[in-house]
Design a protein that fits this description.
Blueprint lengths: L4 H6 L11 H9 L12 H9 L9 E5 L4 H14 L4 E4 L11 E3 L2 E2 L2 H14 L9 H15 L4 E5 L16 E4 L7 H4 L3 H8 L8 E4 L18 E4 L4 E9 L2 E8 L2 E8 L5 H16 L7 H9 L8 E4 L3 E4 L5 H14 L5 E5 L7 H8 L6 E4 L10 H10 L7 E3 L3 H11 L5 E5 L2 H11 L3
Parallel strand pairs: 1-5, 1-6, 2-5, 6-7, 7-8, 13-17, 14-15, 14-17, 15-16
Antiparallel strand pairs: 2-3, 3-4, 9-10, 10-11, 12-13
Helix pairs in contact: 3-6, 4-9, 4-10, 5-6, 11-12
Amino acid sequence: MPSDIRAWLNGHVNLETGPSSGVQGELRDSLGLPQRVAAPTLDRISYLVDLLGSPQTAYPVVHVTGTNGKTSTSRMTAALLAARGLSVGLYTSPHLQRVEERLAWNGQPIDDEGLDAVLSEIALVEDQLDELPSYFEILTAAAFTWFAEVAVDVAVVEVGLGGTWDATNVVDAAVAVVTNIGVDHVEYLGPTRHGIAKEKAGIIKDGSAVVLGETDPEITPVFFEGARPSSVVRREHDFGVRSNVMAHNGRLVTLYSSGRDYEDLFLPFHGAHQADNAACAVAAAEGFFGGEPFDPDVVQEALAGLELPGRLEIVGRHPLVILDGAHNAEGAKALRAALREEFPSDARTLVVGILREKEPHEMLEALGAVECERLVACSPPSLRALDAQRLADAAKNVGLPSGAVEIAETVPEAVARALAVTPEDGQVVVTGSLYTVGAARAVLVND
């Protein structure tokens, strides 16, 4: 077993951060690991969990995919199930600051020692694999193993990317949730919504209860082409949002599902889109109980105490500082709409760092960058980061004056510059990637 288990983990191919180069490549060289993992396949993760005793079969799973809102919906679903007295595991990705955030049990992340222990179990069997697993496959196996060891009643598992070929798809979902379908990760999933929908539909298995948040009639038939689900509920038909208005520090919403209205629920989150995520989560939790409605008080208790880090999260005042991990055009449009409705300002500074597979002009236009007083471009801490100069050039191309665009080498430097040039009655919005938000959060929030 490696003496430094975290170095061992970080030495594996990680598609989240990019190709095996730089520090990751050096780690792989020092550990004697090869530089590539072929894809797509479930062979590696399937063999790995088999060696670990198939822990993912020890409990039922609520499996969540979609283009946007996966993490929020997963967190809400886990909170709702826990409010019913269940022991609940939660697996999400990527993390904002620490890898331990990805694995949680009843709302609490795994501790350092616990993660090291379960990673060590995986390291002991790795040499029995014909091909080395990826970073994400190892963490997925770690989550499944830990949930079995602590004997959860149910696990809520967020898909990392797509569905069919995602490492999490070794589970047979008791409930399969699709939040929505947009165009993202085209380098892996293809350029069309229809193709992306087909990939995400892969999490639906025979006997799954399906919660379908996508409403486009041209897309929804894709989800009925493969497996034979036990039931299907559709947003705007069987569940959804009746009302959704601003409230102090959140939203006041009325949701409906399973023939019941959940009236005047307070959601302690900003952004009208979170009501749709909450509706999906309620439908998913009900689906786990065979469509049985929840007590409205239980729903309110579960959601009112929940936090969603990095999702329109306020982390500072004077100036107001908002973190949002919008990482694609649709997410950026949702952020822009939320800012217009809830946080209008004539003195807004955007801190933006995006990944290179995103089209910078499209992202900046979706964010409404031209409406802002200034923009500080930076590169997120990822090997996939878009060069800050290219982002700054794009900002000028979409209409920002040259004097309103600055470049910072790192996210912390960009945040410091934004705070220095923004008046106390203005606001700083950090966005473009969860990696950007995580790096900003590390210097702005003391958890």
